[in-house]
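Consortium newsletter contribution from the modelling node. Members have asked for a concrete example of what our holo predictions look like. Here is one, prepared for the KE4 complex that several groups have been discussing at recent meetings.
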Amino acid sequence: MKNIRNRQLFEQAVKVIPGGVNSPVRAFKSVGADPIFIDKAKGAVLTDADGNRYIDYCLSWGPMILGHADKAVLDEVKKAMARGTSYGIPTALETTLAEMIVEAVDSIEKVRLVSSGTEAVMTAIRLARGATGRDNVVKFTGCYHGHVDHLLVQAGSGLTTLGAPSSPGVPADFAKHTLLAPYNDLGAVEKLFEAHGPTIAAVILEPVAGNMGVICAKKAFLKGLRALCDKHGSLLIFDEVITGFRAGYGGVQKMLGVKADLTTLGKIIGGGFPIGAIGGQAAIMRHLSPEGSVYQAGTLSGNPVCVAAGIATLRELKETNPYPHLEAMTLHLCTQIGEIFKAEGVPHTINRIGSMFTVFFNTGAVTDYASALKCDTQRYAAYFRQMLEAGVYLPPSQFEANFLSTAHTEAQLNKTLAAVKKLSL
Ligand code: KE4
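And here is the predicted structure:
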């Protein structure tokens, strides 16, 4: 693989952008390589600055479920752009997207559109605190909800359940209202509610985690959280920024049989454009300004070009229902990868739901952050580099999710499997 122009662009970028990237994981630090720079993409294929082509299983971290430069999406975006790109004044398009989300997610009666997943989560937490008049929030170690200060926390010293900042620049005071529990550990959450119940505004989690690698919450765990929130008057927030419209049309909450009080969305609902959304019961959403007094605002919230891309994407997903096909393709790919690694004696675990999956390089089940951290990240790095060399782009971190799109072909999956067969791990 040629790497001349990529390297030149990286050297140029680091002079004016911290680490040469606009989001840390893109720097490839955890996989021991320098980043590639993308020139263009179409369908499931990326082309970098040196003309190297890759089958893409990262899909911009999830949004590109229809593949890159989907014609239906581009046509709607071009139409929207020709009418102007931003007004800061309501448009019918925003109502259409909100209506589509309300219709798709049973627990959502009203929606507020914002410009990123982080903004959606930040708003959902403020709304939960404003609606309940309480300050504390329960989150789970290993779940990532964007870079909002009070959620950049990890288990405090001595593994206490009180959050301690996981990033410089987050004052300890900002983390003190964040309570932590291990994912899938209902007993730990019960203890938090015993100690802090009347002060807990919300419990937030990824109902299927994508940021530890893919880990599915156990149904009993989710049902237990629902019961605890109902008992203590706290709100259950499902962060479905990744899972929303990924495993099925709507959220995974329909599949998992547990309704959230608030749901955050992003990625797919923007079709590759900046977007986020907070949705929930009208009785809670009415607290949001200007209807209520919980303030939230955004210059480009509900931007008509972004919303047009989102509408086109959801319309395509609703009309074609690609989910059974995506599931079958992903199951085939994961099964075959498992067969190859098993035959090679490579310790691994594959977690999958719908068309999102992670190949963990470890033995034993991966059900929470502690078990995910037991992975051999050096082996993952070697896997990433060798697959990249073979023309397959995977997430540049063991603790992320792989995705398939409707643009992936059987030939591309076969090429991917041929590359897996040639690995030397
Ligand atoms: P953004 O602010 O990046 O749009 O969304 C934040 C966010 C919120 N909730 C969940 C469950 C998320 O996964 C994310 C962001 N996802 C990461 C990748 N897992 C974005 C990639 C990056 O940080 O560059």
